[in-house]
Write a structure and sequence with these properties.
Distance between the termini: 34 Å
Bound molecules: 1-O-pyrophosphono-5-O-phosphono-alpha-D-ribofuranose
CATH architecture: 3-Layer(aba) Sandwich
CATH class: Alpha Beta
Number of domains: 1
Radius of gyration: 17 Å
Helix content: 25-40%
Order of helices and strands: EHHEEEHEEEEEHEEHEEEEH
Number of helices: 6
Strand content: 25-35%
Largest sheet: 8 strands, mixed
Shape: globular
């Protein structure tokens, strides 16, 4: 599989993902696990964040250190991407959040855009596209297309599960976009759901 794909090997991610898949996990617990997984995956996906030198005063004197120097935007794909925002804001409290509304047409599986309020000029240096499921990859590709037209230069995809088909499609369309997920699952089924997956992430998150 492609070098752009980064599947977490962290034991906590594996443990929480297994709980998340379980049909016995209720909506409240599901949202909590998604938030925790987002935080852990964000920690891994920001390994190459740019730093600038910074000096602070400790009680004992001056200490040379670092501060994160990139302006970061997180771009949740509505609806299910919303569940990943909280965990990321815990780690990165100053991020800009730019929502993109897409739903997948149930017949064609193609993404249909219904919300985009990006300003004319790009305001961030690094974009994290959030969607728990990378299935056919259509939603992620459409979102990266939108962000590149906006002028975003550095873009990463952060999700929970990916299907090989989605990874292939996204890396073919946008080889510069790294993909950070908790697991690469086996395949898509004939209605475009990831198998073994976790069902419909939006429905399990929002109780619909
Ligand atoms: C699901 C999921 C992704 C998309 C993935 O959204 O949350 O956004 O499908 O599929 P793709 O990789 O094949 O594009 P859905 O259309 O069910 O909308 P929702 O998030 O509002 O439930």
């Amino acid at each position: 599989m492609t070098a752009a794909l980064q599947v977490s090997t962290h034991p906590l991610v594996k443990h929480k993902l297994t709980r998340l898949r379980d049909t016995a996990t209720d909506h409240r617990k599901f949202r909590e696990l998604v938030r925790e997984l987002a935080l852990l995956l964000c920690y891994e996906a920001t390994r190459d964040l740019a730093l600038a030198p910074a000096t602070v005063d400790t009680p004992m004197g001056e200490a040379a250190g670092w501060e994160a120097s990139e302006v970061i935007g997180v771009v949740p794909i509505l609806r299910a991407g919303l569940g990943l925002v909280d965990g990321i804001q815990e780690l990165l409290p100053n991020v800009q959040v730019w929502h993109i509304g897409l739903y997948r047409d149930e017949e064609t599986l193609r993404p249909v855009q219904y919300y985009n309020k990006l300003p004319d000029e790009p305001t961030v240096q690094l974009c994290l596209v959030l969607d728990p499921m990378l299935a056919t990859g259509g939603s992620a590709i459409a979102t990266v297309d939108i962000l590149k037209r906006w002028g975003a230069r550095r873009i990463k995809f952060l999700g929970i599960l990916a299907a090989p088909e989605g990874v292939e499609a996204l890396t073919t369309a946008h080889p510069d976009v790294s993909i950070h997920v908790a697991e690469l699952d086996e395949r898509l089924n004939d209605i475009g759901f990831i198998v073994p997956g976790l069902g419909d992430a939006g429905d399990r998150m929002f109780g619909t």
